[in-house]
Design brief:
By secondary structure, the protein is α+β, with helices and mostly antiparallel strands. The model has no long low-confidence stretch (mean pLDDT about 90). It contains 6 helices and 10 strands; from the N terminus they run βαβαββαββββααββα. The radius of gyration is 17 Å and the shape is globular. The strands form 3 sheets. Strands 3, 5, 6, 7, 8 and 9 form a 6-stranded mixed sheet that branches.
Length: about 200
């Protein structure tokens, strides 16, 4: 099942889009109407798990990810490490922009050694893409995390919290990746992907 979570403001547009998506997509309305009542990215993951009673591994892709590569190797790697969360990583070439992202350092077995959200002085250029595979056993952790004081809208904080309960592995992607969370990145994406048509 493919699930898309939207706030209430845009739910009608996503429901209209889903009719021409080419395959069934479940559209969930998280009920939020503004910045003040939104659930946040981690809250939306938890909401989806509860709303659809998910009890199997979960692949999560943030809506502001735009990329041109296949997810098959990522899922295959997760299947080999079935009890371990796997996070998509990208070697971001612009070191001066790294402070906008969650930055990861890995050991020789691709396990997370450190995860720092928006560091002023990054130790690597491995960016967490907000692309995750979570084992079924970890899904109850979402509500446990949400019951604490940590940020609800920065999944990187959830990943760092998860590292205290489990090994977390990284999968490096090659190709074009953009985080289109701001207008500058969106304009760059339009230029790059219009040339790929």
């Amino acid at each position: 099942e493919i699930i898309l979570v939207s706030n209430r403001k845009f739910i009608d547009q996503f429901q209209d889009w889903s009719k021409s998506a080419g395959r069934p997509v479940t559209i969930l309305d998280d009920g939020s109407m503004s910045e003040d009542d939104r659930l946040g990215a981690v809250g939306d993951m938890s909401f989806s798990v509860r709303a659809r009673a998910i009890q199997e591994p979960l692949l999560v892709i943030a809506g502001d990810n735009l990329f041109d590569f296949s997810l098959v190797p990522f899922v295959e790697e997760f299947n080999r490490q079935v009890d371990t969360p796997v996070v998509g990583l990208y070697e971001y070439p612009r070191w001066n922009h790294l402070s906008k992202y969650g930055i990861v350092t890995l050991d020789a077995d691709n396990r997370f050694q450190e995860f720092v959200e928006k560091p002023k002085e990054p130790k690597s250029n491995l960016v967490s893409m907000c692309l995750y595979c979570f084992p079924a056993r970890t899904l109850p952790w979402l509500d446990e995390y949400l019951s604490g004081p940590d940020p609800k809208d920065a999944p990187g904080h959830y990943i760092r919290w998860t590292m205290s309960n489990s090994a977390v592995r990284g999968h490096r992607f090659r190709g074009v990746w953009l985080d289109i969370g701001d207008m500058e990145s969106l304009e760059e994406a339009r230029k790059i992907f219009s040339n790929k048509r």
